[in-house]
Amino acid sequence: MASTWLIIGLGNPGPRYAATRHNIGQMVMDELADRRGERFREHKAGARVVETWLRPGGDKLVLAKLNSFMNVSGTPAAALAKFYSTDADHIVVVHDELDIPFDSIRLKTGGGHGGHNGVRDIARALATPDFTRVRAGIGRPPGRQDPADWVLGTFSAAEQKTLPIFLADVADAVEQLVDEGLLAAQQKHHSRA
Questions:
Q1: Which end of the chain, C or N, has fewer beta carbons within 10 A?
Q2: Who's near 176: CB < 8 A, 6+ residues apart?
Q3: Structural domain boundaries of the chain?
């Protein structure tokens, strides 16, 4: 029987942040929506959503881009989970990850937040860390650059050349996670690095 998956792409709202490293989760949601020819619409939970399917007759996907800032992602994420009656084992959060090199993907369920305030706030609001994270590597800043400035900066010219392929790979990882499970997605996408 088909089930509903809530896929949340983290980021910050507005055009000022749209192309920043911190918004890679929302960029992946755009990729997933574009593959299905869908457009986001406003939802009362404080998010923009696309309701679609993995494939016709398959699991339902709710792709979500939160209207809140990254550090307060929990309230709209929890409201969406309640609205769609989605338990933590069917919630996937796609986010940027400093501790993973650019163009690398890591998937895990549960565990700590690794200093990521968006993930921390979602775990708090859901009262559990037991949701799956698809972590898109953005790498550490060079030299002594402040990590906060790094994540709120845009991708370098070299990164921008491979960014569309990277976004497609992360979207593939999300689809495989839903379709085949965490282990299969880990085996394929962790071996890329």
A1: N
A2: 184, 185, 188, 189
A3: 4-192
User: Helix, strand, coil: what percent of the chain each, to 5?
Assistant: 40, 20, 35
Signed CA dihedral, 116, 164, 179, 65: sign only: positive
Half-sphere exposure of 84 (CA within 13 A, CB side): 28
Summarised one tens digit per residue, pLDDT across range 115-153 is: 899 999 999 999 999 999 999 999 999 888 899 899 999
Closest CA to 68 of 131, 125, 149: 125
Helix/strand/coil for 4: strand
> What is the CA 88 to chain-centroid distance, rounded?
15
Given 22, 95, 116, 189, the catalytic residue: 22
Tell me which CATH code domain 4-192 carries: 3.40.50.1470
CA distance 49 to 65: 6
- Nearest one of 145, 24, 189 to 94, comparing CA atoms: 24
Known catalytic residue: 116? no
**HSE-up of residue 90 (Cα within 13 Å, Cβ side):** 18
Has this prediction a pTM greater than 0.85?
yes
The C-alpha atoms of residue 19 and residue 140 are separated, in whole angstroms, by 17
Pairing status of strand 60-66 against strand 4-9: parallel
The C-alpha atoms of residue 6 and residue 86 are separated, in whole angstroms, by: 7
Beta strand 47-53 with 41-43 is: antiparallel
Q: What is the DSSP letter of 124?
A: H
